[in-house]
Amino acid sequence: MRRSGSGWLEFLIGVILIVLGVAVFANPLGAMSGFMMVCGIVAIIMGVADILMYIRIESFTGFGPMVSLVSGILSVMTGIMLVAYPGAGSLILGVLFPIWFIAHCISRLSRLGGIREWAGKGAYYCSLFLNIIGIILGVMLVIRPWITLISAGWIIGLYLVLLGIESIMVAFSEFRSGY
């Protein structure tokens, strides 16, 4: 099988997410100001990764590839807005972040078949659990936007660490499988 750089990209994203998550979790108030630009850069990187995933699996029919494309576009849009207008971070956290959160989790859920094939049942169930929790959190944030503003640092920090762990698990499974 041919190796691609997607495993390394997924690994890099995982490391960045964990570092960013720990930093946000350690300083939740800083998440609303100083980390907005960094969060924007990470959102752009994750969006590009989702778009690359769409390009890689576009030959398959079904719902999964299109969700990766939509999630990637939303991530890039969110990231560009955060980088260009860091002061708009609270607006983005209150409105666009929960929508991106849900779209990203749905995108990950649409790739569960591949995760089960590449990484086995353990990674499959871990990814399934984390992304269902992510969808529930995203819906809560849409229904009660004030939750986002009050607890944004804690929620974002914890979930970024979890997403980072999942990305590293996927990366290692890609390394092992040779994709």
What does this structure look like?
The chain is mainly α and 179 residues long. The mean pLDDT is 76.
What's the short story on this structure?
The chain has helices spanning 6-26, 36-57, 64-84, 89-94, 96-110, 112-119, 121-143, 145-177. The protein is mainly alpha-helical and 179 residues long. The termini are close together.
User: What is the typical, i.e. mean, pLDDT?
Assistant: 76
Q: Number of domains in the coordinates?
A: 1
Helix proportion = over 70%
Given helix and strand content, the structural type is mainly alpha
Q: Could you describe the largest sheet, including whether it forms a barrel?
A: none
Order of helices and strands: HHHHHHHH
Low-confidence stretches: none
CA radius of gyration is 15 Å
What is the approximate shape? Answer: globular
What proportion strand? under 5%
Number of E strands: 0
Number of helices: 8
- Our measurement of the CA-to-CA distance between the termini, rounded to an integer number of angstroms, reads 7 Å
Q: What distinguishing features does this structure have?
A:
179 residues, mainly alpha
Give the arrangement of secondary structure elements.
Elements: H1 6-26, H2 36-57, H3 64-84, H4 89-94, H5 96-110, H6 112-119, H7 121-143, H8 145-177
Helix pairs in contact: 1-2, 1-8, 2-3, 3-5, 5-7, 6-7, 7-8
